[in-house]
Fold this sequence. Notes:
Largest sheet: none
Order of helices and strands: HHHH
Structural class: mainly alpha
Strand content: under 5%
Distance between the termini: 43 Å
Amino acid sequence: MNQYDITASLVSDVFTTTPDFSPYDFEFPDKRVFDWDLAMKKYNKTLDWKKIQKGPDMDDAGEIRKNHYKGNK
């Protein structure tokens, strides 16, 4: 432990006792704050914004089944 750990604020201040399960919408980041494309140019990479906007595939029954049987061998 060092002086930064001792003087740090507790993270429990950012949590509430009741979770908010309401859905949210994806918003593109403001390029005035941070330009992802410019940052990734250094690595010769680009971001696929359509894939990010789509989000992950959730509850794929086939994938869940495959992982279940793989773990039970």
